[in-house]
Design brief:
Blueprint (H helix, E strand, L loop, with lengths): L1 H22 L2 E6 L2 H16 L4 E7 L1 H9 L5 E5 H8 L8 H13 L3 E3 L9 E6 H7 L4 H9 L6 E3 L1 H5 L4 H8 L8 E3 L2 H9 L5 E5 L4 H4 L2 E3 L12 E6 H6 L3 H9 L4 H12 L5 H11 L4
Parallel strand pairs: 1-2, 6-7, 6-8
Antiparallel strand pairs: 3-10, 4-10, 5-8, 5-9
Helix pairs in contact: 2-13, 2-15, 4-5
């Protein structure tokens, strides 16, 4: 009986260890577009290289990944400050980049979500032009674009339907900068088609996302938002607080990646996938190696 009892207790102890080890695993989530898939792969590879057992749950929708974190189904992912502020926390107050970060850090802390250090990558809306056209017209800022339109320059604008119609989109931007393209000068199309239309000289200005890899690949110039119209969408790692407490080294690892990310670096990585057709896993591995993180 003693031997049987001892065996049962031993099995129970090992079972407990198995449950404990499973609970210590890091579940990395991510959204379903190139930039997010890259960050999910970078995070998973970095954590695995540092001895963590990782489960990769990339490729989720934005609302789904946020809900999964709030429900404790994922532990880590990369989020944009503006998305949390506007979409998840329903704040429509106009805030600068630091205020946006501070506010979402405060609000999400109440939900058990910790924002780590923000990167310099800001995947916000932006207006872009072909470099040669930008230089020829002398337009490098949105104020200069507004002045050119108001001076009678015939400038066509390519936009997706959402930005054209949304209440914080094109119309209020035109009001903020004091100009109007005019309906006949606006071409609405799918987001992905805007880049090709701009490249092919079908439009003069296009709505883009600031870290899209096609910006450097197609040699576009992003016009400076000199009045700060667009909200900040700074990219940062977010972690469930209980996971961070159980894994105190996690913050330093994730912050080491955040410190390496800029608009230019993120656009380069995105371009390697979307333009050069290198696999996400290989781009992630090369980034970690080049940055001295693995």
């Amino acid at each position: 009986m003693n031997r049987i009892l001892k065996s049962a207790l031993t099995a129970l102890v090992f079972s407990g260890f198995a449950v404990s080890a499973q609970a210590a695993d890091i579940v990395v989530g991510g959204k379903n577009f190139t930039e997010q898939q890259l960050l999910t792969a970078i995070t998973a590879q970095l954590l695995e290289a540092n001895g963590y057992k990782v489960e990769n749950r990339g490729g989720m929708g934005s609302a789904a990944v946020r809900q999964a974190m709030e429900n404790g189904q994922i532990d880590v992912y990369w989020e944009y400050t503006g998305t949390s502020l506007i979409t998840y926390n329903k704040v429509d107050e106009k805030l600068d980049a630091q205020q946006t970060y501070d506010r979402v850090k405060e609000l999400d802390a109440k939900k058990g979500i910790v924002w780590l250090e923000p990167s310099d990558a800001n995947n916000t809306y932006a207006f872009a032009m072909r470099r040669a056209d930008s230089e020829e017209r002398g337009i490098t800022t949105l104020s200069e674009l507004a002045a050119a339109v108001n001076n009678g320059d015939d400038i066509t604008f390519g936009s997706n339907a959402e930005f054209y119609a949304r209440p914080d989109g094109l119309k209020p931007l035109e009001e903020a900068y004091g100009f109007e393209f005019g309906r006949s000068n606006i071409k609405r199309m799918d987001t992905g088609l805007v880049y090709q239309a701009l490249k092919d000289d079908q439009v003069d200005v296009g709505l883009v996302f600031a870290t899209d890899g096609r910006i450097p690949a197609f040699d576009f110039v992003v016009l400076e938002d000199d009045k700060g119209y667009f909200p900040s969408y700074a990219l940062a790692p977010v972690v469930r607080d209980e996971v961070l407490e159980a894994n105190p080294g996690l913050a330093d690892l994730l912050n080491s990646v955040s410190a390496k990310l800029t608009d230019q670096e993120m656009a380069k990585l995105n371009a390697e996938v979307d333009v050069d057709k290198v696999s996400i896993e290989n781009v992630a591995a090369e980034f970690l190696k080049e940055q001295g993180l693995t």
